[in-house]
Amino acid sequence: MLEIKDDKTNTVTHDMTGRCPFGGDRIGGALGTPPALSDWYPNRLKVEQLHANGPQANPLGADFDYAEAFDKIDYTVLKQDIKAFLTTSVAWWPSDYGNYGPQMIRMAWHAAGTYRISDGRGGAGEALQRFAPVESWWDNGNTDKSRRLIWPIKQKYGSALSWGDLMVLTGNCALEIMGFPTYGFAGGRRDAWEADTSTYWGPEVWDSSKVNSSDSMVTRDKRWRGQNGDANYDLENPLAASHQALIYVNPEGPYSSGDPMGSARDIRTTFTRMAMNDEETVALIAGGHAFGKSHGMVAADRIGPPPEIAPMQAMGLGWHNPEGTGAGEFTMTNGIEGSWTPNPTQWDNAYLENLFRFDWEQTRSPAGALQWKPVDPNAPMTPDAHIPGQMNPLMMMTSDIALKTDPAYRAVCEKFLHDFDAFTQAFSKAWYKLTHRDMGPRERYLGPEKRNEDGLLWQDPIPPADHGVIGAGEIAALKKIILAAGVSVSDLVFTAFSAAATYRNSDKRGGANGGRLALAPQKDWAVNRRTVPVVAALKGVMMDFNERQSGGLRVSLADVIVLGGCAAVEKAAADAGVEVLVPFTPGRRDTTQQLTDIEMFTWLKPVVDGFRNYIDDQFEQIAPNVAPEEMFLDKAHLLALTAPEWVALVGGLRVMGANQDGSACGVFTDRVGVLTNDFFRVLTSVDFEWKKADEKAMSFAIVDRATGEQRFEATRCDLVFGSNSQLRAVAEVYAGSDGHVRFVKDFVKVWDKLMMLDRYETRQ
After folding, report:
1. Which of 70, 141, 448, 712 is the most exposed place for a label (fewest CB within 10 A)?
2. Does the keyword Nucleotide-binding apply (predicted)?
3. Catalytic residue flag (residue 436)
4. What CATH architecture is 608-740?
5. Catalytic position from the list 110, 243, 436, 740
């Protein structure tokens, strides 16, 4: 056993690495730390990501109804409990200015601020700030203390109040006790129960020996493409934060350079990736910096490791500060020290007034971080957060000076500077958007303060139903009408799938509800080109049907599109000798072009959609060094599919001819449009040889070993189901002599799941 002494803390730890706990040396095993599969085989497809955060990890069980439990909380008392806590102080982590409000705003902001529009991942929705890697990012320094401080409130309300809801509501209450009128709050966030191991946070290698220096980490980032200053200089997709281990940008400027215009560039890139425009960006920064202070009293290299690698006795708390009490006036977070305003616990316009009234010059914090102070020695002072009677100079960060320097941001600042009411409203709405952006449809919102108006375009509003919903008789009649309309089974299946496949479980956006397949931008995407004439035909079916109805009964285009796919699957299964009834739940509504945010929906456009065997023409430029099957896996993950569901869905789509261009790639059957298990039988057959058809191994020829004749063609998104051992194991089940009926039934189940992913109104 190796003893390791820490000279800073004079503590001794024991290194058990490479040792068996039962004696002798350990080569590996369940109790040890052998190399992971990704170490042995770095290019393997990590299919196990589809089963992360599964039911086995959830102590509440599958039957727990969070909405019902949340509804039983006395919401008024809950807010009173939170607000009473906010104006207290505890010895082990005293509040600044006797008010935990600013600290809790930061916690909530950083929980929500990981959201990114590119793939909908991040955000406060699952309270992932509790787990690695997010909990241990340098930019989240001391948010572990914030969560520990509100644990007594979480403990009181138990499972009826999720961590995600508590963190955001605490941020709202903090704003309210300091005089800010919040726009509202909606509960409904369901906590995750394990670390997120699938989200791609960047290409940089984590250096645990330098986890306490933002500068040491960000100077090695690899996420920017092109040369700094060039027109093509941009942040790698799907990333949003400008540097590794940050929520938004380095407050000292890019690479701690103190460059305001460079900081403005990073701010605009980052906040745009997080779905905020210039006005919302300024409102959030200026509004957030109206409160509290930044902490930088101790050098970064004096601070202990973050929670995930802190010693056992730290009990989940990281960043131990050895100076003084380690808290209060000795606190260290991002290294910058000071407050932006003379009254850090009161909502006012002092931040913008100070920013524009004074000239600012660079200086250094006690921790050595670059920051700015007023040139005018007569500028107002701000009270010390802990030492009575002590006054300190005001402070600005480089990211603050950027708002004054960048012309577009400056114009917004000046508008808010002269219209405090407009600023207040803008910050109120932007904060609501920030903290609710990842929650999806309003049907998921809980509580008495939720906002239900249709004016918030980022919520992807769908007008309420103004007609009766079709029943079993109308559904049966419509199926016959659709199948007799001259549209093929392949086209009907492809179109229904295309409508539903925009869904993202990450932020609950997309899906067939709303009928947006008929609207821009979706109708114009290359991957959806095949749907255009089908949608036109189905729109005709809808109009003819509705004209014949009376008594307010109508059917939406969204319902007709999905019903067409269901009818086609039933026919394809029957033609294969298996009679099935594909479930169909009516009630989808159609939205309008005016209620569709084209820019935000453009982010849902796929680069690779292996389900439809689609690869964007610019794929290699958009995602260099990424294999199509990796993005295919990512899409399956966003659709909340398990590995068996993924395999079954693709096998059915292939034999029914649902490729985006109608090509024969992966269509391993001579009976296209029939729901056979031919895809799996060919995929697992020893009678075929698989040969590369191009130098990069993006396409393949399937050759009969006996005759040398080419029988089929395929892409990587086809052959992965035979080459990957986990996917092949499932494919072999469906290829077996007893696999056909099982496959058809499993396909119908996953088809129904896909069509219902966005139907949150049916789950309340």
Report:
1. 448
2. no
3. no
4. Orthogonal Bundle (1.10)
5. 110
